[in-house]
Write a structure and sequence with these properties.
6-stranded mixed beta sheet, 6 strands, Ribosomal Protein L4, Chain: A
């Protein structure tokens, strides 16, 4: 496969250079099975597993036999906290549990590579020389995204844009944190779930370099 090149933009949306992507990472392959495993693992780890029910031995009351065994004409019962009674215990109900499970490092790397390759194929990966907001203003950050043709408007889907940075300065963090349609992270810390979830990705040149080095390790 021929090496893929992408334009590098400045914050005004002007192309200032071109970047040849590392062929060992951006090889055009999309491993759907790896993506499926990693996304399921990530979502399973988010489950808290706190659902809990009480069995007949844990429900308060029911220590006395409701009525005598014989002679009443009614069915025999030993406790008013039996599961067939109202306010009784629950049979085989949910208990607190851990839903999380791990996948190995190679599968995680394959899923992340596949997500990035998918974004390149869809022309949804934009590279900028650097991303820096001088003032902690949402208006300034949205203006930069508009110049790069990435602004999604007020009705945009949550986290539809992912910004991956090589470093996060204070003003940049303050300007980005309240924009509902985007998420931001350090490129070296990103994972397959947020890459796949995002519709478009904006990444800095140095951030892309850090990310490639991490995947190749």
């Amino acid at each position: 496969m021929e090496p893929v090149t992408l334009p590098i933009y400045n914050l005004e949306g002007q192309e200032i250079d071109r970047l040849t992507l590392d062929a060992s990472v951006f090889d055009g392959r999309i491993n759907q099975a790896a993506i499926y495993q990693v996304l399921n693992s990530f979502l399973s780890c988010q489950r808290r597993g706190l659902a809990s029910t009480k069995g007949r031995g844990e429900v308060s009351g029911g220590g006395r036999k409701p009525w005598k065994q014989k002679g009443t004409g009614r069915a025999r019962h030993g406790s008013s906290r039996s599961p067939i009674w109202r306010h009784g215990g629950v049979t085989f109900g949910p208990q607190p549990r851990d839903f999380s499970y791990e996948v190995n490092k190679k599968i995680k790397q394959a899923a992340l590579k596949s997500g990035l390759n998918a974004k390149v194929k869809e022309n949804n990966l934009t590279v900028v020389e650097e991303f820096k907001v001088e003032r902690p203003k949402v208006k300034d950050a949205v203006g930069i995204l508009s110049s790069l043709k990435l602004s999604s408007g007020r009705r945009a889907k949550k986290n539809s844009i992912l910004i991956l940075l090589d470093k996060v300065e204070k003003n940049t963090r303050l300007a980005l944190r309240n924009i509902s349609f985007l998420n931001f992270n350090l490129a070296k810390d990103t994972h397959a779930y947020e890459v796949v979830l995002a519709q478009k990705i904006l990444i800095t040149k140095n951030g892309l370099k850090q990310l490639v080095e991490r995947i190749k390790r």
